[in-house]
Specification:
alpha+beta; 12 helices; homodimer; 7-stranded mixed beta sheet
């Protein structure tokens, strides 16, 4: 095999490590856990931002540093856990100019303040690629943490917001297209200044009504596939939540808005499942919760049923822009 | 300023972040801490290995992956804290061949077993440089953790082993010199298969007699400077602990063995200070503890006194081999 996919790479690691031993969350949940007691786990997550694949043209250094934190915080959000502290590891190409370092520090600090966590240490290194790795640390009661593998047939599938903005915004940035950058400001902004749904994630977990949750950084379709695989269920979508601007953009550029929403990525909405009896209460608490489908038995796989036609949703994830 | 040093970069971050708030260990100790209670802190450390600057010719992928873990474990060792779990973030250049991924997994697994900790999760990314970032997590009683800033005038300065092997071994590897590679096998081996002094570090912390401790990954001189700066003391060396093979090597290549020992780096011995009354007991417990000097008042700075001559030890650290 010449070029393993991310999933194949993870499989190699899962095979090498005796991962059943110390892994109360499994090897593939959004975060990892170190159990301290029956009621207290340390929650850890690392996420690496690599400039050559994660930072499109038009994104500033400060925005890239902020985004690195958002990516890690988003995984905590999906589990309903507040990150308390962040560690920052930097790989920096030469020359390491003071202005660039200050921009990195500002972006990190901005994000840490937004999500109310402290940056407590780090490591700096010379590298050929600009790399920011953010490790987040928090504490959770395992009985309240929302896993990936709890979805059950009959559950409602919902998301915290509409999709497709980042996929569309990225296309505009990649074309370095100034006119459309200002016309579709909200789409470009979604790429440059993403937001983790930490408040919503914590409120959802506290409600007790959520059966599974994942962040959507790998794309909506991929996130649904991951919940389905972890929970051993099928999912049937009856709506794809598409942002209004994405429809306009798709129209102008003759693209499929549905594809932008399903197969985009680097969006940090949450994808959850909930028991039907709890759903109205959840919607009341989390204003923006959008119902998009229903959990079925595993044999049904992942399908969409729009305008009376049933079709399979591909296991296709977010492809980096390179 | 065109090219900030690592210290200057850290200073930019320390200025940006409100680092006095949530930093019980300060911004510059070997590890960082998240306080849970008066008797329990979460200890975190991230360390990034970058192939272009940290992996010399002649070091295999498996050895590089193992070394990435050793670097993080070594910081825990210096504080006398056992790392419980490790997170792995990878930046992988294309093509990501299965053999390479398996070698990485084997190296990580090997090190995790050596230091009895679990690899509990991670993140993989495409990158232009091969990067392994290891985040370690542990638990410590803050009253038993050995800080950098506790050295007091009158303390004895000691190290857990002789120095210079990595600096010498690296020179041999950089020359791609087969004959000397086999002649100085122990020196090359010190680079390719370094060891963290975790057992010794934990025993030293348990003894209660150690006033400060640091790992020597930045070089012996740099480590002494860091203890002196953090503790606001001076240090006078009366011996530089040089490995026997390093003397032979320095002789053959007309190099200063003292310089190799003082200004090398990527060695993972511990540099400690201890009250004189506790030192004999420590030496009994830790077989290989070598006395190298004494702590003085800050005004004396960092000096060495060999053969009756007193000289200043430069604040010069480990320079990567590029």
């Amino acid at each position: 095999m010449n070029n393993l996919t991310e999933r194949e790479i993870i499989q190699v690691f899962a095979n090498q490590f005796d991962y059943k031993k110390g892994f109360p969350l499994g090897f593939e949940d959004d975060v990892s856990a170190v159990p301290l007691s029956r009621t207290m786990w340390i929650i850890v997550k690392t996420d690496m931002l690599v400039a050559s694949t994660d930072v499109p043209p038009g994104m500033t250094t400060q925005e890239a540093a902020r985004k690195a934190v958002v990516a890690t915080v988003s995984d905590f959000a999906a589990k309903g856990v507040k990150p308390r502290a962040l560690m920052v590891s930097l790989g920096l190409p030469k020359p390491t100019r003071a202005t660039k370092i200050r921009d990195i520090a500002r972006g990190l600090d901005q994000a840490a303040r937004e999500y109310d966590c402290d940056i407590i240490g780090g490591d700096t290194n010379q590298a050929e690629d600009f790399v920011i790795d953010i490790a987040g640390v928090g504490i959770a009661d395992p009985r309240k943490l929302v896993r990936r593998d709890g979805a059950q047939p009959g559950d409602i599938v919902a998301v915290t917001g509409p999709f497709g903005k980042c996929a569309a915004g990225l296309r505009i940035l990649m074309r370095r297209d100034r006119r459309h950058t200002s016309k579709y400001h909200s789409l470009v902004n979604a790429v440059r200044r993403p937001a983790a749904q930490l408040t919503k994630g914590i409120a959802l977990a506290r409600s007790g009504g959520v059966t599974s949750s994942i962040d959507s950084s790998d794309g909506l379709a991929s996130s649904l596939h991951q919940i389905a695989r972890a929970s051993r269920v099928g999912i049937s979508l009856d709506a794809v939540p598409i942002a209004a601007d994405v429809k306009r953009f798709a129209n102008e550029f003759h693209l499929s808005a549905t594809d932008l929403a399903l197969y985009g990525g680097e969006e940090y909405e949450l994808v959850i499942t909930a028991r039907p009896k709890n759903f109205p209460e959840l919607q009341k608490r989390i204003g923006s919760l959008i119902r998009i489908g229903i959990v079925e038995g595993a044999r049904h796989g992942l399908t969409a049923c729009f305008e009376g036609k049933r079709s399979r949703i591909e296991q296709r994830g977010w492809e980096h822009f390179t």
